[in-house]
Amino acid sequence: MADPVTFTPDKGAYIRTNTWLAAFAMVGAMGVLWLIGNAYVWTGAPAGLAAIGIRAWYLASEELTAAWTISDTTLTGPGPRKVPLGQITAINTMGSFVQIVTKGGDKHLIKYQADPSATKAAIERAMA
Predict the structure, then answer these.
(1) What is the pTM of this model?
(2) Least packed by Cβ within 10 Å: which of 39, 76, 111, 114?
(3) Residue 73 phi, psi (nearest 5)
């Protein structure tokens, strides 16, 4: 039996992901204000930044402790998540996330990976 491998969230990936999210929220909020004819379009930028900044701060303690562990037969995540390796049909990378898709259609995210490609490769090696 091989030693289990643990995939832990990376703080740098968490910050980068939320920075991009804040940038999109800022532009989106400004766009909505512009579309509705608001004279203070610029207020969308600090509103979007504040919304995502507060969300990131509030969720950090939970998101940065959500680790996944892979053993010879199972991928185990936070809470009751257990995915038998034989049930995995697809592994996708999306930004700093790795998405696991099962034969039953369930989807799980391994979030905030420093190197999502390496995480995907490790899971593929365990499945082989």
Answers:
(1) 0.86
(2) 39
(3) -125, -15
